[in-house]
Design goal:
Elements: H1 5-26, H2 40-43, H3 46-53, H4 57-68, E1 71-75, E2 78-81, H5 84-92, H6 121-131, H7 137-140, H8 143-163, E3 168-169, H9 175-189, H10 200-210, H11 215-223, H12 225-238, H13 245-254, H14 265-269, H15 278-291, H16 294-308, H17 313-325, H18 335-347, E4 357-358, E5 364-366, E6 369-371, E7 376-379, H19 381-384, H20 409-414, H21 429-446, E8 447-451, E9 462-464, E10 469-471, E11 477-482
Parallel strand pairs: 2-7
Antiparallel strand pairs: 1-2, 3-11, 4-7, 5-6, 8-11, 9-10
The structure holds protoporphyrin IX containing FE.
């Protein structure tokens, strides 16, 4: 058959017009064009993805905010915001804000959607009604719950005592992750919580869920399932996916117990108000267990590192003075301790990166921009905590006192995004704060800390993981010395 050249030309022209039309709509005619940002971001998301694959997305997006301001178009269909108004609209409007994107599919457990991975607000609200009660502050501060945390803080302090004269690696030996793991399993499963600070068997479970080098592997799977299939073996060797047989065994086994303490999540999920089947219960527990380890562990790690720096020894001394002067006070009635923890989470949010959401049907106004439905919008804590220098002057300086001034308190709280905001913000927030304060009190009442000379500032730079960050050098060596019962001199 002879194909007419005219027909070929017509087909070619039509294809060109179609592609051109799509390109025009996406670029020149896109309603997002009024939003500042690099020109390349109008045409392609490749630059953003490159930074994501290099574990530097948070720093890249922050650099764009510094250059373009609190609203930046970071890809053809993606906009990053860093303002209180945007946090309120994206994460709090209608209670729990906009729906999550499919990015959260990466975190499904046993093929099930947990509270964290549920995308739409109706399903999420149903799950939250069952679970939230156990994370309310009134439940966290019950004596059996606090006793378990205090016992684990005492175990951590034993490690500090044993290290005197040398250094303790808070990261590689993951003592802080062990502490967070033992605390969260206490809250989920008591009396079946772990003791990874003292037993190797439990430490092995913690190690399985805390070390994950599969960022690139999982990102390829997310962005291109076909490429992921083609590159399967190569990717496996370059960035091994995490396997967690010990953790699965522990969680599935523990979830079959029926006599967990009344303050635990397991008790709640097995109670009459729950309609979750056994696999849902296990998936939820594994999810919360993992959510509570790296976050709280790394928040403490970065904060103790900062408190140990010569520039921050005056804060360390002041913290110790407050602790020594108030030995009988409740952990949540110590204003300077509270300020230190808030400032640590502001400077080093363990989840510093964008939390992506879809603009709902009909589009929305975010700040002064009309954003069409389906656009991916997000805020990232690292930038929200730094961009508005009227609220956070000298944002890169660790300065706990900023939280003690009554002036500007409401504005600071509106911009505090370490636990996100609204109905989908961190359900474990009160537990995490209790763990952090109880541990810091136990440590800094008895010890002074200094950085080990082998450490460098660069090794403590934040390195992005899929949804948290860790120290770039994956080590945090601190020297612990017994504190005199007198406050530390900072001369
Ligand atoms: C300092 C420690 C912690 C920080 C900074 C933190 C931060 C966050 C953030 C930013 C989110 C929102 C994530 C998103 O929207 O993608 C979140 C959600 C969540 N966190 Fe935490 N978290 C911490 C500790 C914990 C602990 C100890 C637990 C549990 C025991 C926990 C359980 C959860 C769960 C289940 C969600 C999902 C909530 C929902 O979708 O309704 N977190 N956390």
């Amino acid at each position: 058959m002879v194909v007419s050249p005219v027909l070929v030309a017509c087909l070619g022209l039509s294809a060109l017009l179609l592609v051109g039309d799509a390109l025009l709509r996406r670029t020149v005619l896109s309603p997002l064009n009024g939003i500042p940002g690099p020109v390349l971001a109008r045409f392609t998301s490749l630059v953003l993805k490159w930074h994501e694959f290099s574990a530097r997305r948070t720093a890249y997006v922050h650099g764009l905010h510094r250059r373009y301001g609190p609203v930046v178009r970071i890809a053809p269909n993606e906009v990053s915001f860093a303002s209180a108004a945007a946090v309120k609209e994206i994460y709090c409007s209608g209670g729990s804000g906009y729906d999550k994107t499919e990015f959260y599919d990466l975190f499904k457990v046993y093929g099930r959607r947990t509270m964290f991975t549920t995308l739409n607000k109706e399903d999420h609200a149903r799950k939250k009604r069952i679970l939230a009660d156990r994370y309310a502050n009134t439940n966290v501060v019950r004596q059996p719950s606090l006793d378990g945390i205090a016992e684990r803080a005492a175990n951590f302090v034993k490690k500090c005592s044993q290290s005197v004269g040398g250094s303790l690696d808070l990261y590689v030996r993951t003592y802080l992750h062990s502490y967070a793991f033992d605390c969260v399993t206490h809250h989920l499963f008591h009396p079946y919580g772990t003791d990874s600070l003292q037993t190797e068997q439990d430490e092995a479970i913690m190690r399985e869920v805390t070390f994950d080098d599969s960022l690139q592997n999982r990102l390829v799977g997310y962005y291109s399932p076909t490429l992921h299939k083609v590159l399967g073996k190569l990717l496996y060797w370059l960035a091994k996916p995490r396997q967690t047989p010990l953790a699965d065994n522990f969680v599935l086994g523990t979830c079959s117990k029926t006599d967990a303490a009344p303050f635990t999540l397991l008790d709640r999920m097995q109670g009459p108000s729950s309609d979750l089947d056994q696999l849902d219960v296990a998936a939820e527990c594994l999810d919360h267990m993992v959510a509570g380890i790296d976050t709280t562990g790394d928040a403490l790690c970065f904060l103790m590192w900062e408190l140990s720096q010569p520039r921050s020894l005056s804060h360390q001394a002041r913290l110790r003075a407050e602790l020594l002067a108030n030995p009988g006070a409740a952990f949540d009635r110590l204003p300077f301790l509270d300020a230190v923890v808030l400032e640590g989470l502001r400077c080093f949010p363990p989840i510093p990166m964008s939390l992506p959401r879809y603009v709902p049907r009909g589009g929305r106004a975010i700040g002064s921009y009309a954003v069409p439905e389906g656009t991916v919008v997000s805020c990232q804590a690292y930038s929200v905590h730094r961009i508005d220098q009227a609220v956070f002057p000298k944002p890169d300086v660790f300065y706990p006192d900023r939280w003690l001034h009554p002036d500007g308190d409401a504005e600071r709280k509106r911009l505090f995004f370490a636990f996100a905001s609204g109905g989908r913000g961190c359900v474990g927030k009160h537990l995490a704060l209790a763990e952090m304060k109880i541990l810091l009190r136990a440590v800094y009442t008895s010890f002074t800390t200094l950085p080990d000379p082998a450490m460098t500032a660069e090794s403590m730079d934040m390195s992005d993981q899929l949804i948290s960050s860790r120290p770039l050098g994956q080590a945090c060596l601190l020297a612990f010395s017994p504190a005199a019962s007198q406050p530390l001199s900072t001369d």
